[in-house]
Amino acid sequence: MTIRNVAEAKAELSRLLVLAEQGEEIVIARAGKPIVRLELIETKPVQRKLGTLKNELKWTDEMDKAFVDADADILEMFEESLGIRSAVEIPS
Q1: Any domain includes 86
Q2: How far apart are CA 3 and CA 32, in angstroms?
Q3: Tens digit of each residue's pLDDT (9 = 90 or more) over 47-64
């Protein structure tokens, strides 16, 4: 167990956090009296469920066209920033 007073804990908080991550028990004291304990919070990874929006979203031709238009606009802005003209034509 590691015990530090408030001033010491403040000065070396990053180091104390590393120790806590390694499983060390960290106690912070004021005037020699323990007041708090730092401990690692165990978190479980969130399990994602795939396919929750299946049949909820429909991709349309309008969406395809919007992406093609956006691609053309982005390409044009990029080429303008370089001072070049496109040799590639993106179909509309």
Answers
A1: yes
A2: 9
A3: 888 888 888 888 888 887
